[in-house]
Amino acid sequence: MGHVTTSVMWFRRDLRLGDNPAVLDAQAAGPDGVVPLFVLDARLWTPAATARTAYLSRLLTDFSDRVGGLHVGHGDPAVEVLNVARSVGADTVHVAADHGPYGSRRDRRVEAALAEHDIALVRTGSPHAVAPGRVTKSDGSGYRVFTPFFRAWQEHGWRGPAPVATDVPWTRPDGRAHDIPDAAVPDGLTLPPVGEAAALDRWRTFLDEDVADYDDIRNLPGVDRTSRMSVHLKWGTIHPRTMLADLAPLRSGGAAAYARELGFREFYADVLAQRPDSAFDYYNRAFARMEYDEPGEALEAWKAGRTGFPIVDAGMRQLRGEGWMHNRVRMIVASFLVKDLHIEWQHGARHFLSLLVDADLASNQHGWQWVAGCGTDAAPYFRVFNPVSQGRKFDPDGTYIRRWVPELADVEAPHVHEPWQLDELPAGYVAPIVDHAEERREALRRYEAIR
Fold first, then answer.
1. Quick check: 37 and 71 in contact, CB under 8 A?
2. Alpha carbons 101 and 365: distance in angstroms, whole number
3. Half-sphere exposure of 117 (CA within 13 A, CB side)
4. Neighbouring C-alpha atoms within 13 Å toward the C-beta of 302
5. Count of other CB atoms within 10 angstroms of residue 295
6. Burial class for 439, CB neighbours closer than 10 Å (0-12, 13-18, 19+)
């Protein structure tokens, strides 16, 4: 058999050339040609206008320019990847390992299809500093609590960033790049910047201007000085290893707090790999027995940002306006849905997945379960966020609320947090749809029933 010098680099959530060991492996295996492949899988791509498809369309266009034209397949990856590999006579298809429930199943199917033609699926690296499953307790089992996981994760450590891939001999099976389908941006949505250059630019700005203060400012949505890196981590336009390497020499409390947040992302990925069922089912199954309300008008009011609780409504409108929501506000709106409206967490998690540009299955689902009290390391169920006091504490002057709820633009603090205390409600705004104190008591009653 002659020496084959072409390989396939199948990109997924790793659309970058810096710190991407799989690309370096593909280059070594294909000195005469590397096919840059992306497959628009029906599980990833819907023609409906969503924030995520609109973002992905623009991201693929940006990346295609960097590699001189992506080869874009449409359909079942087991068919598409095999066809491309065979068409160029490749012995190897290179990927970063995917540990998610769907991604790992898909990769096993693709691997089996390739193996029938003596083509290897080569996994190099993953979207994580430490791949899920690597950090274990002494008995080999996975961690269920974050703090001991974080300690063990830090002790385990990770490799330094890989060099930037240069002079890769990109090639296309049919000699041309494929058109990337355009996806409409939903009405009223502003997408964040796309691509590896934008990710690195945003990260450098955050390191220069905000990371030192991160621990003090990360809970203040009105200040808007969080890193906004979640979307870049989601699509792999930067690797967490790069970020951890940049944070390592910094001695600020902010840098340590930020590294801890990256650790949380790795923890949730690890938990999801241990318990794939927890993507949509209860991590603590006792909570499945709890009494919940049927989703109806209250759920729709929450989705629309018309609950009458300003901080909740601001968050839900930011989600529609930016495909993103400040992390502190994510917790507040989640608590409101589960504990004030008594609606199961899956309804909220699904809404977030459909609208967030940075929707990461592990972080989203387990963040929701944390708030709902049924996840790992759960917030005690009796910790019910009070939307008024949370608003006062984290958006004291109401800057964030007024930015996203224009009906309250002229209402000064402290009334901006409780507009129903005014002589009359501001025009166009709604009265609270529930009595928080009453619903808190009801949430605790339902919890007592399953203890």
1. yes
2. 13
3. 21
4. 26
5. 17
6. middle
The answer to whether the pTM exceeds 0.90 is yes
Predicted pLDDT of residue 1: 47
119-145: burial string, b at 16+ Cβ within 10 Å, e else? bbbbbbbbbbbbbbebbeeeeeebbbe
> What are the residue ranges in the chain where pLDDT is below 50?
1
Domain boundary assignment for the chain: 6-126, 128-159+196-274, 285-450
d(CA 427, CA 40): 46
- Homologous superfamily (CATH) of 6-126 is HUPs (3.40.50.620)
Task: Check if CATH label 1.25.40.80 holds for domain 128-159+196-274.
Answer: yes
Give the SS3 label for residue 73.
strand
Question: 186 is written with which tokens?
Answer: 């939903």
Sign of CA dihedral 282, 287, 290, 293: negative
DSSP designation for 283: S
Q: What is the second-level CATH architecture of the domain 285-450?
A: Orthogonal Bundle (1.10)
Residue 91 is which amino acid? D
pLDDT digits (tens, 9 = 90+) for 217-226: 999 999 989 9
DSSP 6: E
Residue 445 identity (one-letter amino acid)? R
**If DSSP codes are grouped into helix, strand and coil, which group holds residue 269?**
helix
CA 121/CA 8 separation, integer angstroms:
10
Q: What is the C-alpha separation between 118 and 443, in angstroms, rounded?
A: 58
Under a CB-based contact definition with an 8 Å cutoff, are residues 56 and 50 in contact? Answer: no
Residue 176's pLDDT is 66
For the chain, the farthest-separated pair of C-alpha atoms sits apart, in whole angstroms, at 86
Beta bridge partners of 10: 37
